[in-house]
Write a structure and sequence with these properties.
With about 160 residues, the chain is mainly alpha-helical. It contains six helices and three strands.
């Protein structure tokens, strides 16, 4: 039953992707169109499963990521959005998750833990700190790569060089 239900949702996602074929990057697939084609109600029981299948199918078939446009639908990301906005958003989320892990694991009372649990806590905290440091480093490198290239100064004219 579970497989059949997922197959039905995947088929509906395929219909939506086919209907969105004339759309280009930057366009929006409205919620109403998705509801009509899929014959589903937004915020219904299987809506999130349908959206997940739709995003996956759109990314695989057309190499375009979808991003929610609040109260409108799902936007087909432009190249710039897909390169920069999505990556930064996902990295921020990953950073928040790592920080949350540090707070939650660090909140464990050290005195009440067994020797093994103390060791696990210590190793886990060190791993998460290292992962957060590497994530911040990667984000910094990506920001630098995404920034506009600085213009190179024009070489001095030959006459200016001779005059000196």
């Amino acid at each position: 039953m579970h497989f059949e239900l997922n197959q039905v949702i995947d088929d509906k996602a395929a219909l939506i992707v086919a209907a969105a074929d004339p759309l280009c990057r930057g366009d929006v697939i409205p919620f109403e169109a998705i509801e009509r084609i899929a014959d589903m109600v937004r915020d219904g029981e299987k809506w999130s499963t349908l959206v997940r299948a739709l995003k996956r199918r759109m990314l695989r078939s057309r190499r375009i990521a979808l991003w929610p446009a609040p109260n409108v639908g799902y936007r087909l990301c432009t190249v710039d959005e897909q390169l920069n906005m999505l990556a930064e958003s996902r990295q921020r989320r990953a950073g928040r998750q790592l920080s949350r892990t540090l707070v939650e694991v660090g909140a464990l009372p050290h005195g009440e833990l067994t020797l093994h649990e103390k060791r696990v806590k210590s190793v886990r905290m060190e791993q998460v700190r290292h992962a957060r440091k590497m994530l911040k480093r990667a984000a910094r490198h990506q920001r630098q790569a995404a920034a506009p290239s600085p213009t190179l100064p024009h070489p001095r004219r030959l006459t200016e060089m001779v005059a000196e």
